[in-house]
User: What shape does this take?
Amino acid sequence: QVQLVESGGGLVQPGGSLRLSCTASGNIAGGNIMAWYRQAPGKQRELVAAKSNDGLTNHVPAVRGRFTISRDNAKNTVYLQMNNLKPEDTAVYYCNLNQFSKGDYWGQGTQVTVSS
Assistant: This one.
């Protein structure tokens, strides 16, 4: 079994920054992808950024240049540094660990609100 614990959400003004963290514990496989998704009210959950254990990285166009995903494999932790936040970034952010045939896991979500 795997557990994901997220932290770092909150209320921030437009143009501000936040850093999200997610730590995985339990039976962690060597090959995996850790990612951040978000879900705004009334919308589907969408991918924000992903990073494999061997360094392959993807940021969706809406956040490219503003958000940066990173990870510390030794700590089984993934981070999302969010800069120049916009009101449209308001959502619940979810951490995901995809271990392919060994399971797909989600965190409980953390609220990010961008408002003046």
Observations:
- Residues 16 and 38 are 18 Å apart (CA to CA).
- The mean pLDDT is 96.
- The chain is about 0% helix and 55% strand.
